[in-house]
Amino acid sequence: MKKILIICISIIILKTVIFEQVKLESYMPKILTLNSDGHNDVLHIKYENLEGENITLRVYDIQGVLVDERKLTGSQDERSEGSIYIYRYNPRLSHLNDKLQPGIYIFTLTTENKIIGKGTFIIAK
Residue 110 is part of which domain span? Predict the structure, then answer.
């Protein structure tokens, strides 16, 4: 019984440490228009990265197909405010597709294959 309790406590502590060190804070806007008017053309993803972990953004379409993947850490589109980082994701510059089409998309932020945050956004015409 003691061993099970110790293992459970260890897992809880490990999960807490991982999510305290790197976590998704917020993202906006939820709807992107991509019409180059300067409003709602870029998704701002705000996350905390206390340990300077390498963060990867993966974007999937509604069927679960990977449509974009980017390394955020050290990117020219990333800026920091201490341990808080803001990444400006421009779907028009998709690395796997020419341009993302209107629809619903799911994104994940990962570090060493651990998902530390996820969200959804819409590209509208």
Answer: 2-123
